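Quick one, T. Sequence first:
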Amino acid sequence: HDVATLLVAECDGEIVGFLAGCRAPEEFFRRMRRKYGFYMAFVALPSVLRHPLRVLERLLAAARYRGDRPPDLPGYWLLSSLGVAPARSGLGLGEALVARFC
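Structure tokens:
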């Protein structure tokens, strides 16, 4: 069963937008932490060394994050992230990604 989806908008081989969503945020984030947690902590190490308190606070918040739980409605998914390249802003790309997601 699908837990999450990522839509990517591309133009001339360049990523110009994306949308991420999930059906079961708690399950998705639990899987992500289990699979990539060590790697994410390792990659964050240089930032921890430069700004220990600020970065550790954010890492702890990320470790505790369970996602916003969507309502108990059949077929309901949570739109988690949406991004459009600044040069493509205002052209309806975000709207098109949301329409495709729905």
